[in-house]
Amino acid sequence: MKMHTRISEMQEALAVARGDKPADLVVRGGATADVFSGRFEKNDIAIHGNKIVGSGAYTGNTIVDASGKYVLPGFIEGHIHLESTLLAPPETARCMVPRGTTCVVADPHEITNVLGSEGVEYMLESTRDLPMDFFFMLPSCVPATHLETAGDVFGVEDLLRLKDRPRILGLAEMMNFPGTVYGMEAVVEKLLAFGDGVRDGHAPLLRGAGLNAYLYAGPGSDHECTEIEEAAEKLSKGMMVMIRQGTQAADLETLLPLVTPLNCRRTMLVTDDRDPQELLELGHLDHNLRLAVAQGLDPIIAIRMVTLNPAEYFRLYGRGALAPGYTADVVIVDDLKTFRVDTVIQRGRVTVSNGMPIHDFPQPLAGKALRTMHLGELPSDAFRIPATGSSARVIRVMEGSILTRAESRSVKIQDGLAVSDPEQDVIKLVVLERHHASGRIGKGLVSGLGLKAGAIASTVAHDSHNIVAAGVEDEAVMRAVREVERMGGGLAAASADRVLATLPLPVAGLMSVEPVREVIGRKTRLREICADLGSGLKDPFMALSFLALPVIPELKLTDRGLVDVGKFDFVPLFL
Amino acid sequence: MKMHTRISEMQEALAVARGDKPADLVVRGGATADVFSGRFEKNDIAIHGNKIVGSGAYTGNTIVDASGKYVLPGFIEGHIHLESTLLAPPETARCMVPRGTTCVVADPHEITNVLGSEGVEYMLESTRDLPMDFFFMLPSCVPATHLETAGDVFGVEDLLRLKDRPRILGLAEMMNFPGTVYGMEAVVEKLLAFGDGVRDGHAPLLRGAGLNAYLYAGPGSDHECTEIEEAAEKLSKGMMVMIRQGTQAADLETLLPLVTPLNCRRTMLVTDDRDPQELLELGHLDHNLRLAVAQGLDPIIAIRMVTLNPAEYFRLYGRGALAPGYTADVVIVDDLKTFRVDTVIQRGRVTVSNGMPIHDFPQPLAGKALRTMHLGELPSDAFRIPATGSSARVIRVMEGSILTRAESRSVKIQDGLAVSDPEQDVIKLVVLERHHASGRIGKGLVSGLGLKAGAIASTVAHDSHNIVAAGVEDEAVMRAVREVERMGGGLAAASADRVLATLPLPVAGLMSVEPVREVIGRKTRLREICADLGSGLKDPFMALSFLALPVIPELKLTDRGLVDVGKFDFVPLFL
Predict the structure, then answer these.
(1) CB contact under 8 A, B17 and A300
(2) CA angle at residue B324 from B323 to B328, to 5 degrees?
(3) Residues A438-460: pLDDT tens digits?
(4) Taking CA atoms, which of A178, A451, A496, B545 is between 20 and 30 Å from B242?
(5) How far is B359 from chain A (nearest CA, A)?
(6) pTM
(7) What is the pLDDT of residues A470-481, one digit of tens each?
(8) Nearest Cβ partner of A18 from B55, B210, B326?
(9) Contacts of residue A300 in chain B, CB cutoff 8 Å?
(10) How far apart are CA B403 and CA B248, in angstroms?
């Protein structure tokens, strides 16, 4: 924009701020959150264009009545993987907007593992022109390890090429904390590429001198704290502590007692992930606010943790508060207990009124992200495991955790082949490389899924999102895998002779193009089928999705083989 | 630096952080300020090169024993005009370093009024390689008004040219708050030139819708609050409230009760100015800390206000805390009451040990800044005032204030000329344009200085720093002015027949090249002489220095004439 135009626009806005001209919109009569002082005040908020021009008493062309209600800055999510919603971004936005979220900082780690920098481009493109602002951190660990095969490599050249693009805020969670602490060249290079920019951390249980080294290298936040002493140490050493309450991990109850008026500026509430059902039924940050306040946190502190604090940390200047010159992202809630959202204003536009979104959401994008399934040849005996011993390393699933245990179990052998042994709760697990059609298949055994028959398969398989499948009969496994391939990615359950239920996730094998309720319905059906097949797990697909993740202890399977996470190397299946 | 070298350096530092190699320096056994959590903890601080690598237990090649003492981050001054010390920057640093100041953000407003962008260059150049870090904000209001003649114009082109230079942090205090509120094009253009960068404010007593407009335009801080309600409103609307306690203005006692654990992140302690005697005898931010804690503020909050808070506001990433990866600026004090500084470490070097600086300070720079005196022709009758009336507008000095009153007084007339009337405490005041040799002289009358004989003259004359002189006999005024001219700027007192005392300020007419004690000695002598000449003011030169400042009410004199500040226009001397 020409300087001359910018000056006239400023002069126009200043006239409104002074009260010489009416505002476009005035939010009248509410108790307004003053996140700077840490209190509420009864005040009008005047909006001109996409910004707040002032608080006090104003006249406006449109009046939003907030009397009896609380007026808050729009909520800012500081750390989420959007892919966890299983929804394409417009549908995610449609769920989040009525919950008061006006801004999200996302790490497109999953889609980048499938598509490389095209994954980042897809996320940028598919989040344009939505009634919510999406910012992104650039994935730091794609591929996550050398022990698996991702869809692409996202290297330091990609980071350098993309880092100054609009809506890119910094480097996403540096998960390779051992590599950071020990100064691995490729890791250090990525951290240095961002200078003193924002670099998110990820360092579960890291303490003491190791933590010092990690921080020295640059990461400035952590969302992986699970113990209060750990969180206290990280906070004291300069990390922004992101208190996570998502679908997978629920740390809020444990960590919230850490937060005090004196240290709250260094904390946030984040989700990290949110599955579609929780997103629809529990909500988003409104849910985390409810929990925090129910646990006794001062509401204004809780509100800061999803407004001013993330805005400051991510250097989103002019966001996170209701003050002159700030972006007009406003949420009106009924009270500070239910946080029921009545009205949302984003960049000065009313997007939610009386709890209902009043904005059209575009369709998901098509393009290359819908063509990511490249499976190699798959002969009918592809899943055979020749038995080279009588006992094996079996991955033990633990309900509600992404950790597994390594168990030593005797193996059922038929005709010299290791086979599933559902009576002993040991069944076959395979990971099929599906990005480069290499035909590579990792094979192993898993216990704890509980399937007595049939199979399940999924392309949601952290971090490389190959196809992971587990099942009793090889034919069932093959059927589930073939169905996933046919859908271009997704979740499937099958018996030996037919497909039982599916959830197509054609966007990179990670996200649906359907509405949230359709996705929830299909997920529910899949869970029911799993129960029918004998699984006692709450969500066997969730468990499945972490069985190929070789950075989380103890034993995992990738397309390249069985991984002892402690040794960070391959181990033979048979003992 | 090549990426390869940066990586090796990082690897070396990480080894130290992990404890695998000894640190260069370890601060051992002190109670260490954790400004993030808001508490103290007994901890070693390990330093490698110019950064902190960790806290905990470390071994080091050099050990600094801090047992029984408190270890704090180096103090950061958020708003000061260095010229107020009357010392060249190296000498200012020599005074500040032993007080624990490791970082200063200065507004070179005074020297820029004399030298334009060359003034900024001088400040940048003369603060290199000192054992303190100097950052600068770019002056926003040079010349301050159209009612006076400055040495140069510092316009938006200069701002744009200099704004991305190292050590330039943003736009200095926007003093033209009426121009901002009313959208004056030249003012708005300067504010817009910095995008969403740091822009300091200056808006004494501005409240309500006017304040909203001012903030909308961009300024993000204020150091001019004098009332607690004013400060509370500014804080609530997003301003960083800089609580000022300097030589001229003392707002700390009034404003400190505003500061609470919940809002303290939005506050700082600053000085704005510090005269040489106070700098030497009271100190710098250590003095402000003492006062704040004596008034009952939690020491850790007070410390935050001169460490983490200014670092965050000015986006000085990696400063303001004792944490891994942070710049190793450390101050060890005996206790949290006297804040007596024992040791200072700046960028990993010990600069003060047992209270004594152990670092050489360079000589002040020479160059163009020493040749700023360009006085026009000055005939012996230059100061004659033909009487065109019998009563006149007289500037009334008020002890201890930079405000003046406008008085209507009858004038003593001899031979058709208005003359000084020391018996009535009305004497002649002149302002001589001294930048462009125009020969322009503003003439007026002043009461309250109290001189019964002789004259005083000075080039410290806010904001344009012309020569301001007042005296009883025209010959004495001429002698004082000539002496100031001869010195290339400075302060002088003279009788009709000789120079009585001087303080040469050859650097732009604002700063000395002598040590602080010499400057204090000469200032003391000047004050004594003024008392001998009859002045009852504590510091007549201080009063003199504000008589040419046409932005502070009520009546002022510039080289262009007498200014009614309320009307913001010239008025005749005679009524």
Answers:
(1) no
(2) 70
(3) 999 999 999 999 999 999 999 99
(4) B545
(5) 28
(6) 0.96
(7) 999 999 999 999
(8) B210
(9) 262
(10) 12
